[in-house]
Design brief:
globular, 5 strands, alpha/beta, five-stranded mixed sheet, disordered N terminus
């Protein structure tokens, strides 16, 4: 179905606080390198590649095409992850009211787009719950986050991972999805 007006999917109304989830660390095997590595033990780029690999595995299991990295979506995601840690909040909306839509527009993702769709997932975890595999498992147990991951319209992905959490130690993840024409 062709979209005639810009639409945004903010299906992730439920915020995931990975710290509180009781998902066993070895619940699913992965062929993605560093899936169980703490973000503090690998480079940010490695943690992002691993997270994207895990998300694409979930999509592939259901016959969906892979999403590819987009620098502008990653810029928006990284800015939001840093802002949540710096200002100690956890939300799709900043304390000043900036939304996901504002962030992707500011990063230039929607420039010259005739139609588009986008979504955002956020999470944070500490200890063993801060690994890419733990974060992706948590998103897959949340209906809104899972719907974003498995949305067949999305073609691009942006990731921002910060080696800290809004409440202290851990890691904060922001995952943006998009499609534009």
């Amino acid at each position: 179905m062709a979209l005639r007006r810009p639409h945004i999917l903010l299906l992730s109304a439920l915020l995931v606080c990975v710290f509180a989830l009781a998902i066993p660390a070895g619940a699913a095997a992965s062929s993605c390198a560093n899936a169980s590595a703490s973000p503090s033990s690998v480079t940010s780029k490695t943690a992002m590649r691993t997270t994207a690999c895990l998300l694409n595995q979930e999509r592939a299991k259901r016959g969906l095409r892979k999403v590819k990295f987009n620098g502008r979506l990653s810029k928006a995601a990284a800015r939001h992850a840093r802002d949540m840690v710096r200002r100690h909040y956890f939300s799709h909306y900043s304390p000043s009211g900036s939304s996901f839509l504002h962030r992707i527009k500011r990063a230039g993702y929607l420039r010259r787009a005739r139609s588009w769709t986008a979504g955002e997932n956020i999470a944070w975890g500490s200890g063993g719950r801060a690994t890419p595999s733990s974060i992706v498992r948590a998103w897959m147990t949340s209906p809104g986050h899972k719907a974003n991951i498995l949305n067949g319209r999305f073609r691009e992905i942006g990731l921002g991972i910060v080696r800290s959490a809004p409440t202290g130690s851990g890691a904060t993840y922001v995952n943006t999805f998009g499609y534009r024409r």
